[in-house]
């Protein structure tokens, strides 16, 4: 009688977390299948890998979803209507700085690093989850600024898209600073300076 295939001997959630550390540190392209098979689930065979995830791209999509449900939640304040809009943006930026400088994880933001050279693939299907994540953050910033204008915290003539781009650009720029070892305190001080762009209405 033929022996049935061996069941998966690893915890799927843990395996996705382990893969996330690799993709986060090295990027999609530089993370090889050999690395993934060796480091997730205590080491798995190629058949087990493909049976579990289908492909490297399939695993990466799970990793991005897992990242957004955990570390990526630093942007949640942007969507918290109970927070004043300026406070929501400051809180998001400082939470992101703290997360990106955390010694317990790879430095930087996996979503931001996807456009900064650690994920050089041209495959739009691979990059789409990262674009979606960035678009969500952009929409959150725009929403906060729109609320600020409505409340009179910002002048009526404020260019919401331009101001959102200022904050988004800084948020994306934290990643290379964190990887270069710029202290969290310096980045947080820069955020305080940045928020002077939030000029109150007259």
Automatic annotation (TrEMBL):
Signal peptide: none annotated. SUPFAM superfamilies: Homeodomain-like, Tetracyclin repressor-like, C-terminal domain. Residues 34-53 bind DNA. It holds the Pfam family TetR_N. Keywords: DNA-binding, Transcription, Transcription regulation. The keyword DNA-binding applies. Residues 9-71 form the HTH tetR-type domain. InterPro entries: Homeodomain-like_sf, HTH_TetR, Tet_transcr_reg_TetR-rel_C_sf. The keyword Hydrolase does not apply. Gene3D superfamilies: Homeodomain-like, Tetracycline Repressor, domain 2. This is TetR/AcrR family transcriptional regulator.
């Amino acid at each position: 009688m033929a022996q049935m295939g061996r069941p998966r001997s690893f915890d799927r959630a843990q395996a996705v977390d382990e893969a996330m550390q690799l993709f986060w540190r090295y990027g999609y392209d530089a993370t090889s299948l050999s690395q993934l098979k060796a480091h997730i689930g205590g080491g798995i065979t190629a058949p087990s890998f493909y049976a579990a995830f289908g492909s490297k791209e399939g695993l990466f999509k799970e990793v991005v979803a897992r990242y957004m449900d955990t570390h990526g939640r630093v942007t949640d304040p942007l969507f918290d209507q109970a927070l004043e809009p300026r406070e929501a943006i400051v809180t998001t930026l400082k939470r992101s700085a703290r997360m990106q400088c955390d010694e317990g994880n790879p430095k930087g933001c996996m979503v931001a690093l996807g456009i900064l050279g650690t994920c050089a693939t041209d495959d739009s299907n691979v990059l789409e989850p990262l674009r979606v994540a960035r678009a969500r953050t952009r929409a959150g910033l725009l929403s906060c600024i729109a609320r600020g204008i409505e409340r009179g915290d910002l002048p009526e003539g404020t260019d919401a898209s331009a101001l959102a781009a200022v904050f988004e650009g800084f948020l994306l720029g934290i990643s290379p600073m964190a990887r270069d070892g710029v202290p969290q305190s310096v980045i947080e001080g820069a955020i305080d300076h940045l928020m002077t762009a939030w000029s109150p209405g007259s």
